[in-house]
Design a protein that fits this description.
By secondary structure, the chain is an alpha+beta fold. The chain has helices at about 10-15, 30-40, 45-55, 55-65; strands at about 5, 25-30, 70, 75, 100-105, 105-110. A two-stranded parallel ribbon has the order 1-2. A two-stranded antiparallel sheet has the order 3-4.
C-alpha cells in the first residue's frame, strides 16, 4: 500500500539520506524545509559543514528543477540553478502565489 510522507527539516538534518528511503511511496518536502536546509548549508557550524559534504542539497535542487505541477490554483514551478533566483518558486500570472495548508480540528484547509 502506497503511503504519503512529509519530511521535516529535523529528519533531514539527522539523516540526510532519508530522502532516498521511501522508494515506493510519495514523499513531500515543503519549500520551507528546502529553505531551512539551504540556510544551514551556508552556516559555518558542524551541521552546515556536514550538509555541504553530502548530496542532500544537490538532490533537493534536482527535484525542484523537475517540478512542474499544474493544479486548480495555478502552476508550481521553480527556477533552475543558474538563474537569478536559483531554486526559488516562480511567480506571476498563472502561477500559485500563496497557498498555505493548515490542520485545524483534524481537517486540512487552505488559507
Amino acid at each position: 500500500m502506497k503511503k504519503t510522507y512529509v519530511l521535516d527539516t529535523n529528519v533531514l538534518l539527522h539523516d540526510p539520506q532519508a530522502l532516498f528511503r521511501f522508494q515506493d511511496n510519495d514523499l513531500w518536502v515543503p519549500i520551507t524545509v528546502v529553505e531551512e536546509i539551504d540556510h544551514f548549508k551556508k552556516d559555518l557550524s558542524e551541521t552546515g559543514k556536514e550538509l555541504e559534504k553530502n548530496e542532500l542539497t544537490k538532490e533537493l535542487g534536482k527535484a525542484l528543477e523537475k517540478t512542474d505541477y499544474v493544479g486548480t490554483n495555478g502552476r508550481v514551478e521553480f527556477y533552475g540553478p543558474k538563474q537569478k533566483y536559483a531554486h526559488g518558486m516562480k511567480y506571476g500570472k498563472g502561477y500559485v502565489t500563496g497557498t498555505v495548508f493548515q490542520w485545524l480540528n483534524a481537517k486540512q484547509g487552505a488559507i
